[in-house]
Design goal:
Blueprint (H helix, E strand, L loop, with lengths): L1 H4 L42 E2 L8 E2 L5 H4 L2 H29 L3 H9 L4 H5 L5 H4 L7 H22 L1 H26 L10 H14 L4 E4 L3 E4 H17 L8 H21 L2
Antiparallel strand pairs: 1-2, 3-4
Helix pairs in contact: 3-4, 3-7, 7-8, 7-9, 8-9, 8-11, 9-10, 9-11, 10-11
Length: 272
């Protein structure tokens, strides 16, 4: 991304610190596979037991239209939205580079990346829309592959509605963590975009639910989930404090991971 932008004469709406897409720091370099998990009995619907009359009758759960959909529809819809936003970024930059027309590029910068300028200008939706936004092909590909391997098992475990809740929670938490860390700790106005926060939340919940399952790093190195999750969390946390200026939004990663862990603990608490 920055190799393209740096060759252009920046229009007046560019923010000087526009340099920080949210790449999946570890997962973008690791090809992950997961050992099979028995999920046939993992999903459930909460029921209400009426007390006081000695009856054990349970009210049937209300049908949910999202959960009634084929999970593949939700799965491929998320991929399609991410792909569509990436193609729009590509078109916007190509149009600006060849014709000098910045209309579409201005729209994308204002609505599909999150930074303090956009949020304080009232465009709070960028906390979520940035989670479907990728400017670089490698960024979109790595996040897409990770989502492709991780999402189906978690969707089967949670159902469509709760999976979307987890995905949105992870993305928004990553955006807030990035904004807060860069504004209050680093004192910088850094723009961020990418699905890594939402994907990190998915990875965190999977690791909490199946800690004995194995990640195969580089298709070869086995790593149990209970080791992998704290390892990624510690590494991204250290990178956030180390003051290294990279294109990786490690505070966003930490926000996504913590939201996934928190979501898992909340679901466990509901069962008690």
């Amino acid at each position: 991304m920055m190799s393209i932008i740096s060759r252009l004469r920046p229009p007046p709406f560019f923010v000087p610190s526009f340099r920080c897409p949210r790449h999946p720091l570890l997962l973008s370099r690791f090809s992950l596979h997961f050992s099979p998990t028995r999920l046939s009995n993992a999903t459930h619907r909460d029921s209400v037991r009426f007390r006081g009359s000695g009856s054990s009758w349970r009210r049937p759960p209300r049908p949910d239209w999202l959960d009634s959909l084929d999970s593949k529809l939700i799965f491929y819809a998320i991929i399609a939205v991410n792909a569509g936003v990436y193609l729009t970024w590509t078109l916007a930059m190509q149009t600006y580079r060849t014709t000098g027309d910045s209309t579409l590029l201005r729209f994308m910068l204002d609505n599909f990346r999150v930074d303090m300028r956009n949020v304080t200008s009232g465009r709070v939706w960028t906390l979520l829309t940035s989670c479907f936004s990728h400017m670089e092909a490698s960024h979109a590909l790595f996040n897409g592959l990770t989502f492709y391997f991780m999402a189906p098992a978690v969707m089967q475990l949670l159902g469509n509605r709760h999976f979307l809740g987890l995905y949105f929670l992870g993305g928004i938490s990553a955006s807030l963590a990035s904004l807060g860390w860069n504004h209050f700790y680093r004192r910088e106005n850094v723009s961020s975009l990418g699905a890594s926060g939402a994907i990190m939340a998915t990875i965190a919940l999977y690791s909490c639910a199946f800690p004995r399952n194995t990640f195969l790093i580089f298709f070869v190195i086995p790593c149990p989930a209970w080791v992998f999750l704290p390892g990624v969390l510690i590494y991204d946390g250290w990178r956030s404090f180390s003051d290294q200026r990279t294109k990786t939004d490690t505070p966003g990663h930490v926000g996504g991971l913590l939201s996934g862990i928190g979501y898992f603990l909340w679901r466990v608490a509901l069962r008690r």
